[in-house]
Amino acid sequence: MSQPQQQQQHQQQQLNSNIPVSEIFWTLVDKADKKFSKIRDIPYYQRSRHDTYFSKVFKVYTQLWKFQQENRQKLIEAGLKRWEIGEIASRIGQLYFGQYMRTSDFNYLSESYIFYEAIFTRDYFKDGLFQDVNIANKQLRFLARFLTVCLLLNRREVLPQLVNQLKVLVDECKRVFVDSDFREWKVVVLEIGRFLKADTSFMNVRPVRYSLVLDSHPDTLPHVPVAIAKRNLKLRDAVLSSFHHNEVKFSELTIDTFRMLQCLEWEPSGSFYQSGGSKLSHNGATGSGRISYLQDIADPTLPANPRKAILYRPSLTHFVAVLATICEELPPDGILLVYLSASGAGAGAGSFGAGHNESGCINFGSRGDRGSNCIYPSDFLPFTRRPLLLVIDNENSKSFKASITSVIKEAEKGESVAMLLSPNRLPPIVSDCSHSSNGSLFTMFLTAPLQAFCLLLGFSGTDIDLDLYNKAEILLSSSLNNWGLALASSDTLDPVWGQVLGDPFIRRLLLRFIFCQTVLTLYAPVYNKSDFLPTCVPSLTTPVLPPSHSYQSVIQQLASIFGATKHFIFSENVSPENIPSNVDQV
């Protein structure tokens, strides 16, 4: 600190010594509140504007938090309530969470957890909870935010306690505050119940995030020959959006975007495997403690996560504005992934087949509201100046593919668009795998492929022996790695895929897409029916593989593990008696 700054700080301290502590505190609170209101209104996707303001807001709240800690007793004597301390801590938690949503930096999410955990364990909102409806609403909002952070952090051991407290609090508030309406909070309780039921069907046997323990290390990924890939692109940004009638969601986070968000992030070292031993207590700390927990998740060798913008039921103008802003900031070596999971236009009832239309429109609004809430393939045309990967999960995907291929062929702006598109129809045996119960089957194949395979066969997490499941997981992981090696060395690989195969996230999505396509191709109830198959643009040629590593052979071996080969139709050369199986070696 320079000498003029030291003098200024000394003068300020002398001035403050003549002002009551409580007056200084409330001045800081007022200043922090104003800055918080401004940053809260900045959209998550406006990163450069937000990053500049975040440091200013955070500096004020750091000063405020430190001041109340150093003067806690004097402030309490002056009338400071515990819920007012909790409100400051909650704001800091919100700041950290907002910064995570804007940057995808996992450390901000863990810091948000630390502040929310302190609020919960120290019962900051307990005093006066049932005397003042405003304090009750603060506690309800806090619990909802804490639940979201725990979901994203995969702190599954904490969730039942939080959900139970939320439910009990809503019921008690409804009884005590008879003049207030708590119907929206009853909906929140139902939403989190549905969400957890859908998300824990297999108790998260392995993390959805990219794990260096279970997935290929980026440094070991094979290089595509220069003759095919003239450049190597990295996934830098993603736009994720989902809208289905009666879909599984919590707040503005749907089950599909939740899975995709995690799928495009690195799993922090050790956090998934160590989180189960930490439980909330009411002594102000967790079993792992703050310092050790941060050490567990810190891994300086990991690259930065791709930044993500989560859009909930966006209008077309909002969607286009987000794409434009992100494309403007996209680095020269970057590619933008756009994930859309929604009904076709007119499919407000959520039934398959109701939304087919020749235009390929994807509907993000309620029934009868086609104009401002429909995204057409032509809306992507201005953004083909930059590399794009579109992941379209929609029963109108065939029309979308035809329309966008035609539009881009006529007026492409410089880059070829890569696309992964869902089937037009769901296999009949998995009618219970609707958005109202489990989310999208196609999205599950891309984010948790073995879970999707088991659900397709009618198995739930409680039906399967864990040793068998782990055996299948190892087989699938090694097989996908073999497929990736074969793709990278293929002379017929399209350059559009060749330039992104070196990115670990896109490579994993592409290999899981191949797995999904192969499973549904061989699945007996829909055999030889193209409407039930996902497609990609450009198309992928099948690489040369040893018999035991071929696409069909791997599906046959997986089905054998679960005793489900009868559900598939294999060609004679991959029947069990003709294929040397890898199952016993796993």
From TrEMBL:
InterPro entries: SCAI (IPR022709). One of its GO terms (molecular function) is transcription corepressor activity. GO terms for biological process: DNA-templated transcription. It comes from the Eukaryota. It holds the Pfam family SCAI. This is Protein SCAI. It comes from Trifolium subterraneum (Subterranean clover).
